[in-house]
Amino acid sequence: MQALGPADFLKMPWKNGQGVTTELAVARRAGEDGFDWRISTATVAVPGPFSVFAGIDRSLAIVRGGTLTLNVEGRPDVTLTTRTAPYAFGGELAVSSTPALETDGVPIDDFNVMTRRDGWQHALTQHRLEGDALTWAVPTAADALGFLYCAQGRVRVTFHDGRTATVSAGHALRIDEADAIEGFDGVHVCELHADTPLTDIFLTTLTRR
Description:
Elements: E1 2-4, E2 10-13, E3 20-28, E4 35-44, E5 48-49, E6 56-64, E7 66-72, E8 78-80, E9 87-90, E10 95-101, E11 108-116, E12 120-129, E13 134-139, E14 145-152, E15 154-158, E16 164-168, E17 172-176, E18 187-194, E19 199-208
Antiparallel strand pairs: 1-17, 2-3, 3-4, 4-11, 5-10, 6-9, 6-11, 7-8, 7-10, 12-19, 13-18, 14-17, 14-19, 15-16, 15-18
């Protein structure tokens, strides 16, 4: 279990040079794209194309700042907001985006998960925690990974053995299989409680195919 914050994250230009990505977690590899999987945030302020990532499965969600309309090759246009489900698409598809900014001059922040299709798969969900605790099941298979990112507020994570962790806005919690508390059916379960009235989180699981 590893707590991560802004000092642990790495900023870099988009592959196509049109924006900036902040890497939150990554499994690096040799080759053009340089990763087996990557979890990141990015800012979008002006219309333009996405980078192309052949052989990569992508999921995209909005953290804050407005709405983002995607034009995806071979699909109807889709508009993402902070309350829509993450949108999945192939990285080899031609994609362009048009942001509608909530505040002039303040870019949209989005949340991205990418996995190399021939070896990895992922699931991404976003939640607003209100009232009852949310149960999160993290897989315990070899190399499996759970990643919690707090976009707003503060979340308290409670594990079966009584351990707790608190994650504030802009911070993350990484749970690797090696540190897993074995639960049932190949997963271990933790409970997520909002420590503030408005708490938004993103939950990612990564597993090998």
